[in-house]
Design a protein that fits this description.
It is a single chain. The protein starts with 6 loop residues before the first helix and ends with a helix. It has one domain: Ribosomal protein L20, C-terminal domain (c-terminal domain of poly(a) binding protein, Orthogonal Bundle). Helix 1 packs parallel to helix 2 and helix 2 packs across helix 4. It is 75% helix and 0% strand. By secondary structure, the chain is mainly alpha-helical. The longest helix is centred in the middle third of the chain and has 40 residues.
């Protein structure tokens, strides 16, 4: 069986690892053993925080909608209930954007749902 030399593979593996840890602090940017654990942990945190970002954004949307609802003498839950009963199928992301950037449009939607009662 012929001999297999793995020098190029080994170097390529280390180069990609070092490219991933560029900018890390302390020894994690230039020591192989520390760099491996750093990338592993970074991957775990990245996966977890992609989920947490969705959670945080939904909370922010609710706060924005709630603030808009308070300015119209409604609570957040009453506003959402009113929109559901009025068959307005806008999700919270769109409602939050309307509450911040297009207040008149959202107030017209609320008036229409009030009139539909």
């Amino acid at each position: 069986m012929p001999r297999v030399k793995r020098g190029t593979t080994h170097v390529k593996k280390r180069k990609t690892l070092m490219a991933k840890v560029k900018g890390y602090m302390w020894g994690r940017k230039n020591r192989i053993r520390l760099a491996k654990t750093a990338t592993l942990k970074a991957g775990v945190h990245a996966y977890r925080d992609r989920k947490n970002k969705k959670r945080n954004n939904r909370g922010l949307w609710q706060i924005k909608i709630g603030a808009f609802a308070r300015s119209h003498n409604l609570s957040y839950s009453r506003l959402i209930d009113q929109l559901k009963k009025g068959h307005v199928e806008l999700d919270r992301k769109i409602l939050a954007d309307l509450a911040v950037n297009h207040k008149t449009v959202l107030s017209q939607i609320i008036e229409q749902t009030k009139a539909a009662k």
